[in-house]
Write a structure and sequence with these properties.
The complex is a heterotrimer of chains A (505), B (334) and C (318).
Chain A (H helix, E strand, L loop, with lengths): L2 H8 L3 E10 L2 E11 L4 E5 L6 H8 L10 E4 L2 E2 L5 H6 L2 E4 L11 H5 L14 H15 L14 H14 L4 E5 L7 H16 L3 E5 L3 H7 L2 E6 L2 E7 L5 H9 L18 E10 L3 E9 L3 E5 L6 H8 L7 E6 L2 E3 L4 H7 L1 E4 L3 H5 L6 H6 L15 H14 L16 H13 L5 E5 L7 H16 L3 E6 L2 H7 L2 E6 L2 E6 L6 H9 L1
Chain B lengths: L1 H7 L1 H19 L6 H10 L1 H15 L7 H18 L5 H6 L1 H19 L3 H20 L9 H6 L3 E6 L5 E5 H19 L1 H11 L1 H6 L4 H27 L11 H10 L11 H20 L6 H27 L7
Antiparallel strand pairs in B: 1-2
Chain C lengths: L9 H22 L7 H26 L7 H17 L5 H25 L4 H20 L4 E2 L3 H8 L1 E2 L2 E2 H19 L1 H11 L1 H6 L4 H27 L1 E2 L7 H11 L11 H20 L4 H22 L5
Helix pairs in contact in C: 1-12, 2-7, 2-10, 2-11, 2-12, 3-4, 3-5, 3-10, 4-10, 6-10, 7-8, 8-10, 11-12, 11-13, 12-13
The chains are: A alpha/beta (505), B mainly alpha (334), C mainly alpha (318).
């Protein structure tokens, strides 16, 4: 490559110094420095509340930092006072929700920025289609430009969103949790595109909770904790364990379950050859009373679909389900709940909680029949005591029972979801990535609760993304991939690295 | 690829239904498929047709407007007052007066919708009450008639006229032309002007539109002013067709316009719909009404059938959505 | 992130309403030289409020789910026609006439509920179609004629008083109490509120969303039926197309009373407050000899002002 490019590669693209932000008395960000080199993939990790989103908002001009912050782009001092400034400087953010227009075509989405131009020309459809095709060809994206975006898969939509960044000649693209809805295959494809972008000297800020992926794609990684920068590291310098430690300041306690501590006695659930087209096929396994069965596999492996089948929201095409010895057709979730099956959903905020309503109401919604008096009316005393008991038992931190549940931290919110299901005295509880987005202390609390529940003879299916989690907490582990169960282990049989290898290959 | 898309369009199905319906109606009463009947039918539905175009644009943007009948009444009333009081014998002036009035009233809606961030249904219900209430108060409910000759004569203007076997003259009223021009105008704006595309974008994903830097205020203001302008225009047509202005005759018909636009493919959630669809939706309703008249069906059955059609059409559309979701493997919630 | 319980979303609006109510009473008290506080005026208010009040109560439950019922007035009308015809044509006693009317409104509710809950048709469209359909049936049945002339015993429901309180108002209070009980003290109420706020979460929590929504439209139609009793008794007549203007007013009154059109929030108490405000304005104007049209104009202005104030003062809530 020419000497000029080599020089450019040494010169940072973005230099942010001493960025701080205060909201009232709360310090969201404290003196953070960030340097982004041209053509680098820079990972940004940190727990919820670590200041990641505030940092991004400062870079994209959504909020102004406190005085004393300095920003340089390509060596020039700049002010990013609003989103337009950021945009003009070549900074572009792809939000987690992609911000696409579902009712417009791919081509029009890619070129929506043209509608902002001062010289309002008539819309030239041929031109839009041609240029959209050009941009996508450049990236090797193969999507019909005239198709309506709503008809695309999430993965394809993501590529459209990134193509939009190219169309506006972004030099720095911020990807916020880009892989949370993608299958492993789609993630691989996305990473290939990111490398394409790298080759064009475009810098990427890769923000994600998925440490495996951050480690896979990033050149350097910055860790934030409690609003401060813990450090910026070369990829080779860190691994998952070290990153977790840096993010939380604490070691993840490893307290593996003793193998054989809960002898297999009664079979509570048996599934035979369960198949649903497009979701999973020929699933067969058993679950024993009091057992914690781990189900691990990449997204898109069919694990949530399988869970929803057991919960009655996704009836299978073929196969048999035996619950507590009897064959059952779980046609609706009312049936599942009636059988004593509960489900703690994957998407806590949308599926698990009614955010604007009170903690109390969210807790009792599953057990309304338990809090009524003889006339069918609600007994408010009972309602309050049931709710309070749950709050105490699960150590849920809330300022009041009437507070809207959206005020609670992620961990406490998850505890509410867990609690509301435990109140139904279930026989089988399915937990779908229950520690997702939960801070470490709450995670431990949840693990503790799970173990206590299994000791009380409640059977659990624990769906997870993290190998450490299942190895530490489950009696048995099933690995699911591409809609099938490919391996079964007991935790003692396999190491973390081996497990990860099996899942990722 | 183009062919596949045509089959997915609502307008295609609408056109199909219209053709099939026309076929059957002609069998029942040959008078249906005559130029005379069609000219008459189109002429009497111009008012509805123009309003539908305005409402279409509002719906696409993700909003809704139920105050346009009041806007139209005010626009038409002021026009009527001016030309009768000052005896302005110039139909062009009469034509131009209601438009800025409609735009001004529409602007009130647009500004309120933007600044209160309340649901447009609430805002426009309020402005409907306010506008209509004030109009009735200040007008005392008095009718206006006895228009200057040019105004009277305008309603008889035809592009070309023919004579039927009975010797009666009929023709292609100028109002139909106005309607068609406005429909084309709306279509062009929606498809070829950035403001039109921004309207679709906002209706599809308001938050994304905001993030993309679109001036939400300007687009919303445009949308409601556009409705207002068309309401003004439509009120001119209405006054001219009836040669009479009754302050309380228009209000109450909001939902009929809404029904026509929704039949024409616009979604109450925003983001979809087309000028052609709005035109065909009104045409469909016109044909049904006309057909019922020609079949000598009691006038009372019109609404029964209209309501049933709306429900059935919506049911079919809902069914299509559900089966498509099933095919794509989505797990359904309600 | 405010956690002050007094700044909960609903309260500011109720507070504003109470202030407006007091202000309006004072204002009209002054303007009418105290006439508005006379028992006669208060009674007039109590006679006229219930019709809009009952219809607004009917509209409340669909709006709580984030939907709307555009057909409540036509439902009330058709039900009124059935009641009227039962007494005039078929010479049934008022009791049986009312039963028939209520049965009809329940039947219509079953139809509406099925369309919205089980056919998944958006509420606005389904009820729009139903409105036109029902309106048409009313026309077919009555051919546009007015049906009038009911027995005294029936009319008592419209113009009689018990201990000085007008019958319609008593009916309204009983209905409001019933709704309040239903919404605040039954499991159905909790399910309804939560569903209105987040139907996905309630579904995952085992709530039978479809059944709840079905019941909502059933309830709403039934209340429209109750309204039709009051309507027929007060007007001593039934006709197709009556009171069409009330429809949008019910939405206005609901929102003024604190019902969130997106669903999930709103209390009966707020609704009663808003009804009283609206009716006091109407009666006040009446006493002053001002046109009722001015009153409805003021209603629109009041609603917009309340919303604007809410947003300006409490904007930081969002």
């Amino acid at each position: 490559m020419s000497q000029k490019i080599e020089e450019d590669q040494k010169k940072p693209y973005l230099v942010l110094q001493n960025a701080s932000k205060r909201y009232g008395g709360v310090v969201a960000l404290d003196g953070v420095d960030l340097t982004i080199l041209p053509g680098e993939v820079h990972g940004l990790v940190g727990e919820n509340g670590s200041g990641k989103s505030t940092l991004v908002k400062i870079i994209t001009g959504v909020v102004r930092p406190e005085k004393g912050a300095k920003v340089e782009i390509s060596g020039q001092k700049v002010e990013i006072a609003n989103p337009f400034d950021a945009f003009r400087l070549g900074i572009y953010v792809v939000h987690q929700d992609l911000s696409l227009f579902p009712n417009l075509s791919v081509a029009e989405n890619i070129f929506s920025h043209r509608y902002l131009e001062k010289a309002q020309k008539l819309v030239n459809w041929k031109e839009i289609k041609a240029e959209a095709t050009r941009v996508m060809d450049k990236l090797g994206v193969d999507i019909d430009p005239e198709i309506e975006v709503s008809r695309l898969s999430v993965a394809d939509q993501q590529l459209v969103a990134i193509s939009r960044a190219i169309a506006v000649d972004a030099r720095f693209i911020i990807l916020d949790e880009p892989t949370s809805s993608l299958t492993r295959k789609e993630v691989i494809r996305l990473f290939a595109f990111i490398r394409e972008l790298k080759a064009r000297n475009i810098s990427i800020l890769f923000i994600s909770h998925r440490l495996d992926e951050v480690l896979e794609i990033s050149d350097r990684i910055t860790v934030l904790r409690d609003g401060k920068k813990v450090g910026t590291f070369q990829r080779e310098e860190v691994d998952k364990k070290r990153l977790s430690f840096l993010m939380t300041g604490k070691e993840i306690s490893s307290r593996p379950v003793e193998a054989g501590a809960y002898p297999r006695e009664e079979e509570i659930l048996r599934v035979e050859n369960l198949t649903k087209k497009g979701h999973y096929e020929k699933i067969s396994f058993s679950l024993y009373q009091g057992e914690i069965l781990g189900l691990i596999g990449p997204r898109g492996s069919g694990r949530t679909e399988l869970a929803l089948t057991l919960f009655g929201l996704n009836p299978p095409d073929e196969g048999k389900i035996y619950f507590e010895g009897k064959p059952q057709v779980i046609s609706s979730n009312q049936v599942a709940i009636g059988l004593g099956i509960g489900y703690v959903p994957e998407n806590r905020l949308v599926q698990g909680l009614v955010l604007d309503h009170s903690v109390e109401n969210n807790l009792v919604i599953t057990v309304l029949d338990q809090i009524i008096n003889g006339m069918g009316l609600i007994d408010f005393q009972k309602k309050r005591s049931v709710a309070e008991k749950a709050v105490q038992e699960f150590n849920i931190k809330t300022e009041s029972m009437e507070a809207p549940v959206k005020n609670l931290s992620g961990g406490n919110q998850q505890k509410v979801v867990l609690a509301k299901w435990i109140l139904t005295s279930p026989h089988l509880l399915i937990l779908d990535t229950p520690t997702h987005g939960v801070d470490v202390a709450a995670k431990e609390s949840i693990y503790q609760s799970i173990r206590e529940l299994s000791q009380k003879n409640l059977s659990l299916i624990f769906i997870s993304d993290e190998e450490t989690e299942v190895l530490n907490n489950c009696d048995r582990i099933l690995v699911m991939k591409n809609g099938q169960i490919i391996r079964e282990f007991s935790p003692a049989e396999v190491s973390e690295e081996e497990l990860r290898k099996i899942i990722l290959e | 690829m183009i062919n596949k898309k045509i089959f997915q369009q609502t307008e295609f199905y609408l056109l199909g239904i219209i053709i099939v319906l026309s076929f059957f109606l002609t069998l029942v009463n040959p008078k249906f498929l005559t130029l005379e009947n069609w000219f008459d039918m189109l002429r009497s539905n111009t008012f509805l047709g123009i309003l539908a175009l305005g409402e279409l644009v509002v719906l696409i943007s993700g909003g809704i407007d139920v105050s346009f009948t009041a806007t139209a009444t005010i626009a038409q009333y002021i026009m009527g007052l001016i030309i009768t009081t000052y005896y302005i014998d110039n139909v062009l002036v009469a034509f131009l007066i209601p438009i800025p009035i409609g735009i001004a009233l529409g602007a009130i809606n647009g500004i309120l919708v933007y600044y209160t961030k309340a649901h447009p249904v609430i805002i426009t219900i309020s402005t409907l009450n306010a506008f209509f209430g004030f109009l009735m108060f200040f007008s005392g409910g008095k009718w206006i008639y006895n228009f200057p000759p040019s105004f009277r004569n305008f309603s008889r203007v035809q592009l070309f006229s023919l004579t039927n076997p009975q010797g009666v003259k009929y023709g292609f009223s100028i109002f139909i032309l106005i309607w068609i021009i406005l429909a084309i105008f709306t279509w062009v704006i929606l498809k070829y002007f950035p403001i039109g595309r921004k309207i679709y974008a906002m209706g599809g994903n308001m938050e994304a539109a905001r993030r993309a830097g679109f001036n939400i205020f300007r687009v919303q203001l445009f949308v409601y002013c556009f409705m207002g302008a068309l309401a003004g225009l439509a009120s001119f047509v209405h006054a001219s067709l009836n040669q009479m202005i009754q302050p309380n005759s228009l209000v109450g018909g909001e939902l009929d316009v809404l029904a026509a636009v929704i039949l024409g493919g616009a979604s109450v959630f925003g983001g979809s719909g087309s000028a052609l669809g709005a035109f065909l939706g009104v045409l469909l309703i016109a044909i049904i009404k006309n057909g019922l008249i020609l079949m000598k069906a009691s006038a009372y059955w019109h609404e029964v059938i209209m309501g049933a059609i709306i429900v059935v059409a919506a049911g079919i559309s809902a069914y299509q959505r559900k089966s498509q979701a099933k095919r794509e493997g989505e797990i359904l919630v309600q | 992130m405010s956690s002050n319980p007094f700044l909960k979303r609903r309260n500011p609006q109720l507070l504003i309403l109470v202030i407006i109510l007091i202000a309006i009473f004072l204002l009209f008290g002054l303007l009418t030289k105290g006439k508005i506080f006379e028992p006669r005026s208060l009674q007039a208010i109590a006679f006229q409020l219930p019709l809009l009040g009952l219809l607004t109560l009917a509209q409340m439950s669909p709006m709580l789910t984030g939907g709307i019922d555009l057909s409540i007035v036509s439902t009330a009308n058709l039900s009124a026609i059935v009641i009227a015809l039962s007494m005039t044509q078929f010479e049934l006693s008022p009791f049986w006439a009312i039963v028939l009317g209520l049965l009809l409104s329940l039947g219509l509710g079953v139809l509406k509920g099925t369309l919205v809950a089980f056919c998944s048709i958006p509420a606005m469209i389904a009820t729009l179609g139903m409105m036109i359909f029902i309106r048409g049936i009313a026309l077919v049945v009555t051919k546009g004629y007015v049906i009038a002339g009911f027995p005294r015993s029936f009319l008592f429901l419209g113009d009689g008083t018990v201990l000085g309180i007008p019958m319609p108002f008593i009916i309204f209070l009983i209905t409001a109490a019933f709704m309040s009980l239903l919404l605040d003290r039954t499991p159905f109420g909790i399910q309804l509120y939560l569903l209105g706020s987040n139907p996905t979460a309630t579904l995952f929590s085992g709530v039978n969303n479809r059944r709840v929504i079905f019941r909502v439209y059933l309830l709403c139609s039934f209340l429209a039926g109750v309204a039709s009793v009051v309507m027929t008794a007060r007007f001593n007549a039934a006709q197709a197309g009556y009171g069409e203007s009330y429809l949008l007013l019910t939405v206005l009154a609901c929102v003024l009373g604190g019902v969130n059109p997106a669903g999930g929030f709103g209390k009966v108490g707020g609704l009663i407050l808003s009804m009283v405000v609206l009716q006091v304005v109407a009666t006040g104007f009446n006493l002053l000899g001002l046109s009722s049209h001015l009153a409805s104009a003021l209603w629109g202005i009041i609603l917009v002002s309340v919303i604007l104030t809410n947003r300006l003062i409490f904007a930081r809530e969002t």
